[in-house]
């Protein structure tokens, strides 16, 4: 008896998105899409839209475009380049799988990726948002887009991988390799992207997952949790975000006489504006201005083998997919 050929399995890696050029126009287009997402900014439209269109986008876009220009790579924005490279190395580890990547905001879009998979006859898709820690501002927003564009596909999504042993070991190995090459700095600081405290008070598990990740990384490094400083960066707007803030902490450490600090950003799957510019340039400068000597930035896992192995193992397992 002839059996229908099995439809191929597909993996969609989803990252945040990034401008397609380091120009004010491209940054404005990107920020407009990003900051219209109700998962990211919860203000009512009549209040937020005028503020966004007449104040934030015109003032912020040119300034942020200069920052993007300072870290831009020959192949594009670091986030775009590293995410595409990561998809390539994960693909090599998953023969028989169709592996694509998409961005929540901008290109390549989630809608286009899912359309392409449908056109190829794919029925079942695993969606892996490249956010180790779950947040309503990021992971749930990806889920919204998948629900909107995923009709007709059997989709399961990984909610988070914040305590995954393979991922934590990969992060710990990258820190250990940095120590082996450069010696251990005065302190180790893990900086995660912040979110408003209000969201955590309303039940967003993000802060607890950042704490759990930090513990898992400490255990994988074989050091006490108390040897690691956990801070939050990239505050946007005036309200209180998760604390302690990265920059304030670095300035305090500089004032206290810490000379060398090692900083990693395990909440970011790949390097991007927030790591390469905010941490490695702006915050390094703030640390030095406060009396510190050197901030040594430890790159994200990017398209490294350990990252690809950890993600491919997650994709082939059953835990956490729903
Ligand atoms: C890693 C997880 C992230 C969370 C959580 C997150 C929440 C969050 N972000 C903003 C506002 C901005 N973030 C911006 C850049 C940016 N954010 C993340 C990740 C998370 N954001 C990444 C990977 C990046 C870098 C993108 C790149 O192109 O390299 C920006 C754009 C830059 C700027 O204008 O400063 C904004 C704005 C909010 C409001 C928020 C939660 C409420
Ligand atoms: Fe608007
Ligand atoms: Fe952000």
Strand-helix topology:
Blueprint: E1 9-15, H1 24-35, H2 45-71, H3 78-93, E2 97-103, H4 110-119, E3 124-129, H5 139-149, E4 154-157, H6 165-182, E5 187-193, H7 197-201, H8 206-221, E6 228-233, H9 246-256, E7 260-264, H10 273-289, E8 294-298, H11 305-316
Parallel strand pairs: 1-2, 1-3, 3-4, 5-6, 5-7, 7-8
The chain binds the ligand C=CC1=C(C)c2cc3[nH]c(cc4nc(cc5[nH]c(cc1n2)c(C)c5CCC(=O)O)C(CCC(=O)O)=C4C)c(C)c3C=C and fe (ii) ion (2 copies).
Give me the Rg, rounded.
20 Å
DSSP strand content:
5-15%
> What is the count of DSSP helices, taking H or I runs of 4+ residues?
11
The quaternary state of the protein chains shown equals single chain
Give the names of the bound compounds: the ligand C=CC1=C(C)c2cc3[nH]c(cc4nc(cc5[nH]c(cc1n2)c(C)c5CCC(=O)O)C(CCC(=O)O)=C4C)c(C)c3C=C, fe (ii) ion
Strand tally: 8
**N- and C-termini, Cα separation:** 34 Å
CATH topology of the largest domain: Rossmann fold
